[in-house]
Amino acid sequence: MNTKNKFIIIGICIIIVIAVLAANIIRRIKTDEYGETEELVKEKVISKAEAYRLLSYLEYDRASREALSMEITYKDEDMSGWYDSYVNAVYKMGLIEASITESPKKALTLGQCKQLIDKLITLHTQLQGVYQNLSFDFLDSDKAMPISQFLELYNVLLGLIPEEEKLVKDELLFVLDKEDSEEGKDRIVTDKGNYYYQNTKDYEGIFYPEVKRSYESLTGEEILKRFNNKGIEVLVSANEIVYIKKIHTDKIVINNVWIEEGKELKVQTFINGIHKEFETLYKLSQNLERIVGDITIENGYIVSISIKPDIIQGKVLLSGEDFIEIEGYGKIPLDANYKIYKIYGDLSMEKTNSILVGYDTTDFVVSGGKVSAALIRESIKAENIRVLLHTTGFKDIYHSEIEFGATTDFIVKLKDKEKKYSADETIKLQPGDKMLSSGRIIIEPVSDRGKIKLLSVERSYGKPKYRGRIEIAETDKGLLIVNELPLEEYLYAVIPSEMPTYYGLEPLKVQAVCARSYAYKHLVANSLSKYGAHVDDSVAYQVYNNIEENEDSILAVKDTYGKVVEYEGEVITAYYFSTSCGHTTGVEHVWSGGSAIPYLSGRLLTEEGDSEDVISDGEDGLYKDLTKEENFKSFILDEEFVTYDSGFNWYRWNVTIDIKDIKENIDKKLEGRYKANPNLIKTLVSKNPKDKDAVYESLPVTTVGDIVDIYVKKRGTGGIITELIIQGTEKTIKVQTEYNIRALLSPANSLVYRLDGEGVKDLSLLPSAFFFIDKKMEDGKLSAFTFTGGGYGHGVGMSQNGVKSLADAGKKYDDIITYFYRGTNLGFIYQ
Questions:
Q1: DSSP per residue, 796-830
Q2: Pairing assessment for the beta strands 771-778 and 469-475 based on DSSP bridges
Q3: For residues 272 and 324, is the Cβ–Cβ distance under 8 A?
Q4: Contact between residue 315 and residue 326 where contact means Cβ atoms under 8 Å apart
Q5: Phi and psi (nearest 5°) for 64?
Q6: Helical residues (DSSP H) of 147-219, grouped into ranges
Q7: C-alpha dihedral over 248, 249, 251, 255, to 10 degrees?
Q8: Distance CA 428, CA 454 (A)
Q9: For burial by CB atoms within 10 Å, which of 281, 419, 577, 688 has the most?
């Protein structure tokens, strides 16, 4: 070989070496969209980002993680990636610092892992035994940690967490499809529900090296390509797949499937909202149609079907978490894989609370003494409503003793027996009574004109009488009473309990339509199905039979028979309240998590309410922005400005509360209000509450100490307070929502003076959250607060006293309704 050829060969070799080195360098620095280098994937070591992702699931599911405020910062601004929320969660867990100097894209070393776990153990002592059963140690602390070792460690951690506290669990899923909707973006459909897969890893190649598949993050298309029509063994956190362990190769049974049709070698099924066709391994012995059954699948084929033909029918009396009570059958437990199918119209799957109590529109598939599936065969007509009745003073739903009779002869039904009683007989019941031993009892008058008398209960008009029938059920807390009656007759006793009947027929008709709409929404929502009811008889829904029905209330209901308020074809929840401050507010400012609704937006309640002179959100209006403190105060103190509520006593009010009484009330109620919704009462964690960037966190709190100051932090439409600061010597808290504000500033021991100068005592809440605050000083010390405000109630929707004024001005009930609920029209709920 001549010298020239040698140089050519040497040159080629050098080029090859350089190319290999360059490729390695490029490969080492190239990063995929998930932040992990190809080198990490090849070497099967875990990145910090993936370790943080997995550790975050120990304390946070997807929803709670995304609700966290982002507090991490990076030294390198380009460092952020898909892992931010997981890193933030691990910071919240106390495992890392808020300032990140080294990229989470880098490999996690054994030493760094040990530091993370040591911190975790100090916070959760039940994890102390984590190191005892590992097959490896952490001595080579600078070595990158293999994924296999981290997963071994992770599963040991999961094994040490008590089952009731564990957020991550094993699950076997059968993959049906990828959800094809904007709402369901990044979710796959399985037999157990819909699961998010974003950032999910396929770790089968780690757990089972013979599979020879590198771990990787998966897209929906890849999941379908690899796992469609297969079972996968996974770890899940709520509705999210943490990682995939392996493909399940054994048979899988999918329970309580709706089989649309089965012929020859094909079966059309409906599983979790998906129409799915399967082939059978063997020819079907009979044709199948519209039936429920368990199907067994192996290698993508149906190998057996167990049909469930037994069906029962009856009125649903109670829909519990693990049973359904059906008239004539009693309580029947639910199968662990219980399903609900709506089989009329477009086939669909429904939620558990779709089984409407008080109706017999559902068939129940029963197998092995349990309800396997519910088949809703027709739409509800909403003719009857079921009302849960409180004790005297609406103090409790559980009764320690019940005495009842009737205005006519009546029948008491005990399971399959019944006994007739005369109108002059009464019956007393207590928990443990022999009459209740066979379950729920039903009391019905013999005559349609008869009413059931509850002699153990007091209402404003005395011993209440009820149309329809009464049911009594025993629980471990006491006796429950449910009154079932026609929706229209229910309204007879709602209207006088919610509005004075002397207001006149037109206002009463407004109240009837709104009350019907409100009741219908809760009826369809099955709001109190766990008690066998739709609503209760207290202010929590709408007051029922506290004032007896009369001719005016009955006439108002009959004159508006079946009419409801609709917006874009849907019945609305027609919120109403007693008296406005002259301006209503938006629903989003009153209830936590509420979003703005066009027909429930706030407005100034005056004849010129939409004119540029006075409109609340106008350019140059007199009260253009009542969210500003000075504007709101001016509005409340303006005695010349007239609104539809101006002539009513609760239009303006004031109360001075001693600082000692405020402290006592806060100490009494604060813990309970926090527990009711921890996100609505937050504690200051920075230094000064008046700093622009003051930080508040949801922390358990029982007292603020002595009161230092109380002031408004934020107002919503119409001036309603949405955030109130209560500063104390021990804690400073931010209180959100009008109910919490009114409850913590209760004037229970003080007189609230109304527009007419009369003092009202014993109020458990401030009249409204439309008020401003003045401090009272004595000898240079804070001694009391004066709250000056307007209106009575939450302030959303319709002012009942405003209705009276509009009716007095000649407006008809349908015009009044569309005034308060803008953009709505009247519809009809009965066909």
A1: BSEEHHHHHHHHHTT--HHHHHHHHSTT-EEEE--
A2: unpaired
A3: no
A4: yes
A5: -70, -30
A6: 147-160, 204-207
A7: 20
A8: 10
A9: 577
Tell the residue number behind the tokens 């307070």, with chain if given.
Answer: 721
Maximum alpha-carbon separation in the chain: 129
**pTM for the complete prediction?**
0.76
CB atoms within 10 A of CB 375: 21
Orientation angle between helical segments 147-160 and 48-56, nearest 10 degrees: 20
Look at residue 320 in the predicted model and tell me its pLDDT. 84
Distance CA 586, CA 722 (A): 11
| Residues 344, 347: Cα–Cα separation, whole Å | 6
* pLDDT digit string, tens, across residues 67-77: 888 889 888 87
Calpha distance 294→300 (Å, rounded): 15
Predicted local confidence at residue 692, as pLDDT: 78
Q: Which of 588, 578, 501 is nearest to 542 (CA)?
A: 578
Q: Indicate the DSSP class of residue 164.
A: G
The token pair at 42 is 């090849």
Confidence check: pLDDT of 3 > 80: no
Strands, DSSP E only, in 623-780?
Answer: 653-658, 681-684, 696-697, 707-715, 721-728, 732-736, 752-754, 759-760, 771-778
Kindly tell me the number of DSSP H helices and DSSP E strands found in the chain: 17, 46
For residues 194 and 187, give the distance between their C-alpha atoms in angstroms, rounded to a whole number. Answer: 6
| Whole-number pLDDT of residue 755 | 94
What is d(CA 290, CA 417) in angstroms, rounded to the nearest whole number?
A: 36
Tokens of 715: 């107002």
Q: Give the angle 70-76-77 at the CA atoms, nearest 5°.
A: 55
Residue bearing tokens 């009488």: 465
d(CA 408, CA 132): 76
Q: What is the number of other CB atoms lying within 10 angstroms of the CB of residue 684?
A: 20
User: Who's near 132: CB < 8 A, 6+ residues apart?
Assistant: none
Tell me what pLDDT residue 4 has. Answer: 58
The Cα 598–Cα 501 span in angstroms is: 30
Residue in the structure block whose two tokens are 């362990």: 245
CB contact burial 556-569 (16+ within 10 A = b; e otherwise): bbeebebbbbbbee
Let me know: does 355 contact 529? Beta carbons within 8 Å. yes
**Contact between 265 and 302 (Cβ < 8 Å):** no
Amino acid at 353: N
Q: Where are the alpha helices (DSSP H) in 451-528?
A: 487-498, 505-525
Half-sphere exposure of residue 521: CA atoms within 13 angstroms, side-chain side: 17
Say what the pLDDT of residue 28 is.
44
Query: Contact at 8 Å (CB) between 360 and 313?
Result: yes
> pLDDT (tens digit, 9 = 90+) per residue, 501-540?
999 999 999 999 999 999 999 999 888 999 999 999 999 9
End-to-end CA distance of the chain: 101
Residues 6 or more apart in contact with residue 706 via CB below 8 angstroms? 659, 663, 728, 729, 730
φ, ψ for residue 491 (rounded to 5)? -65, -25
The radius of gyration of the chain's CA atoms, rounded to the nearest angstrom, is: 33
| Cross-strand pairs, 325 | 318, 331
Q: Which residues contact 509 (CB under 8 A, 6 or more apart)?
A: 556, 559, 560, 813
Q: Is 17 helix (H, G, I), strand (E, B) or coil?
A: helix
Classify each residue of 456-477 as buried b or exposed e, where b means 16 or more C-beta atoms within 10 Å of its C-beta: bbebeeeebbbbbbbbbbbeee
Q: How far is CA 712 from CA 356, 721, 725, in A?
A: 43, 7, 6
- Give the integer Cα–Cα distance in Å for 329 and 16: 82
Write the DSSP symbol of residue 206. H
Q: How far apart are CA 554 and CA 496, in angstroms?
A: 10
Residue 653 buriedness (CB in 10 A; 0-12 / 13-18 / 19+)? buried
Torsion sign over Cα 820, 821, 822, 823:
negative
CA distances, 73 to each of 115, 342, 467, 676 (Å): 20, 50, 65, 33
User: Which strands make up the sheet holding 781-789, listed edge to edge?
Assistant: 759-760, 752-754, 653-658, 781-789, 771-778
